């Protein structure tokens, strides 16, 4: 039974990154659709129709630019707090196309700051449309995710989504298959068979050629890589000595891609400055914020980039032993470790306390 909301309607806002599959099937070791598998929903489950915010601004920071575009939104109902749940699609991902193509010139409108301004613009629009001028709003996000949408998973039959982390771990831990190298070869064989491929073109030249494609059907690899060059860094490298993946892809391997894919001006010093500028803008490790909870899993490599200790009594960190990326955002299972269950309970309690405050 949904918890009562004491005469007010709560709005939950989730930013979604909906992407299409792209060829080749892999980039930086990740198969299309990721490794988490399709949502566990009954076959034939109807999905909500897409809705559109028709008047999103192309550039929120240029007062002379009056161009607008339509941005995708998906509305469902949150049960626990009797809330309206709104899922807004991130610009440049899924079907939210603010520009004709993904040329370097057009990618200049792709940034986290523009995306946050999209959210602010949409919140104002939604409050007016739904007549909710003073209602409380809770926003959710996990990582900077690149996900396939649920409708696409259901309608396309989720090709390849039987390759989950459990599947891969099962093969690698099956000692009857032979040496670690043979088990890894078995993983590769499964992936190739699943995607109907006879060989895997792993050359750097081929990868760069694919990433230079500027049409929208090429997928989201180009968009996300651009954001790492222009804002974030966050590269997965082999520079650290205590890791099992060889030393063949140092940091410079990713930095060179910024130049080879987009523009020679995106050299290492420019990328470093872009990252410093991002940290200055958002506050870096010294971020000042309230009414926020930061869950992180101990075996999620990205937790090193997150907040793992409380900033203050109103900015709480939850460190969950034995869990991976965004584990707390997936549906609960009987097999979940106790710390994960406790984390979900804590998050729910914090949301409830925020809703009881007057400010």
Q: Give the radius of gyration.
A: 22 Å
Helix content: 25-40%
- For the report, how would you describe the main beta sheet? 5 strands, mixed
Strand ordering within the main sheet: 5-6-7-1-8
CATH architecture of the largest domain: 3-Layer(aba) Sandwich
Organism: Mya arenaria
Signal peptide: 1-21
Protein name: TSSP-like protein
Pfam families: Peptidase_S28
Q: What topology emerges from the helices and strands here?
A:
Layout: E1 10-16, E2 18-19, E3 26-27, E4 30-31, E5 51-57, E6 68-78, E7 83-89, H1 104-107, H2 112-129, E8 137-140, E9 147-148, H3 150-156, H4 165-172, H5 180-194, H6 204-211, H7 221-232, H8 251-261, H9 268-282, E10 292-297, E11 315-320, H10 338-356
């Amino acid at each position: 039974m949904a918890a009562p909301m004491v005469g007010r309607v709560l709005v939950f806002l989730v930013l979604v990154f909906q992407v299409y599959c792209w060829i080749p099937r892999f980039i930086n070791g990740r198969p299309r659709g990721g490794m988490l598998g399709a949502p566990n929903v009954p076959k034939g489950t109807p999905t909500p129709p897409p809705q559109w915010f028709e008047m999103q601004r192309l550039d929120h920071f240029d007062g002379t630019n009056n161009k607008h575009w339509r941005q995708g939104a998906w509305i469902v109902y949150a049960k626990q707090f009797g809330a309206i749940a709104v899922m807004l699609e991130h610009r440049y991902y899924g079907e939210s196309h603010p520009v004709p193509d993904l040329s370097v010139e057009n990618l200049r409108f792709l940034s986290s700051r523009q995306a946050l301004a999209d959210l602010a613009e949409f919140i104002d629009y939604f409050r007016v449309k739904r007549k909710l001028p003073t209602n409380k709003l809770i926003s959710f996000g996990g990582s900077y995710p690149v996900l396939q949408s649920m409708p696409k998973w259901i309608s396309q039959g989720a090709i390849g989504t039987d390759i989950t982390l459990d599947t891969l771990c099962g093969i690698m831990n099956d000692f009857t298959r032979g040496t670690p190298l043979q088990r890894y070869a078995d993983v590769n064989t499964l992936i190739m068979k699943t995607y109907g491929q006879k060989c895997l073109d792993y050359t750097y030249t081929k990868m760069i050629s694919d990433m230079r494609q500027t049409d929208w059907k090429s997928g989201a690899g180009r968009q996300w890589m651009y954001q790492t060059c222009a804002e974030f860094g966050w590269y997965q490298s082999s520079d650290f000595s205590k890791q099992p993946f060889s030393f063949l892809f140092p940091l410079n391997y990713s930095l060179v891609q910024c130049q080879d894919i987009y523009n020679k001006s995106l050299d290492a010093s420019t990328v470093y400055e872009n990252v410093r500028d991002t940290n200055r803008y958002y506050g870096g490790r010294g971020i000042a914020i309230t009414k926020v909870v930061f869950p992180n899993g101990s075996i999620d490599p990205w937790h090193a980039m997150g907040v793992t200790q409380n900033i203050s009594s109103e900015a709480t960190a939850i460190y969950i032993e034995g869990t991976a990326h965004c584990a707390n955002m997936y549906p609960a299972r009987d097999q979940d470790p106790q710390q994960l269950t406790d984390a979900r309970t804590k998050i729910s309690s914090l949301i409830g306390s925020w809703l009881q405050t007057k400010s």
